[in-house]
Design goal:
- By secondary structure, the chain is α+β, with helices and mostly antiparallel strands.
- It folds into 2 domains: 87 residues; 59 residues, no CATH class.
- The protein has 4 helices and 9 strands, in the order βαββββαββαβαβ.
């Protein structure tokens, strides 16, 4: 059951998929339509999942599930992964690689490999104050409070001194 992402309770589970590039307007509209259809029909063991999504900065797909209604099971999570993998193929984009880092350079969102980000930190091209995206947040509340934070307040902090 599709719901507005902003109405999901704070404890709702989230999954964040970051793209290695920004989506254009036509792609965003198409992806939103596909997400609407997928989430409207997403179930776990025959029970509807109360789920919503948001797309941030034209590159982050965030899916949330209110697990007080029904828990996302292994099979339903597998279905969502297959859906995301299909988006990767449809748009020739990488959404599943967790070994990359997105961070802000002014209003621009940059995307680098973890190796390059480490090197940039060593070279002082990024600092503890650089705004990073902590895609490891677990729920809507953490997403709202701790997703877009200075590197020093995220797991990225181990690279910046």
């Amino acid at each position: 059951m599709l719901v507005d992402f902003n109405t999901l309770p704070e404890e709702s589970r989230v999954w964040i998929y970051q793209a290695n590039r920004s989506f254009n307007e036509a792609e965003l509209e198409d992806i939103q339509n596909k997400l609407n259809v997928f989430l409207e029909n997403w179930t776990a063991h025959g029970s509807d999942l109360q789920a919503g999504f948001t797309i941030k900065y034209k590159r982050f797909i965030v899916i949330g599930v209110n697990e007080t209604m029904a828990h996302a099971s292994g099979c339903s999570i597998d279905a969502s992964v297959k859906f995301i993998q299909q988006l990767e193929q449809d748009y020739n984009v990488d959404l599943m690689d967790k070994m990359n880092v997105s961070y802000k350079q002014g209003e621009y969102v940059a995307y680098k490999s973890l190796t390059d980000f480490r090197k940039m930190a060593k070279d002082k091209a990024v600092s503890k104050n650089t705004i990073v995206f902590n895609n490891l947040v677990a729920n809507v509340g953490e997403f709202k409070e701790n997703w877009e934070v200075p590197a020093s307040e995220s797991w990225h902090g181990r690279f910046v001194k």
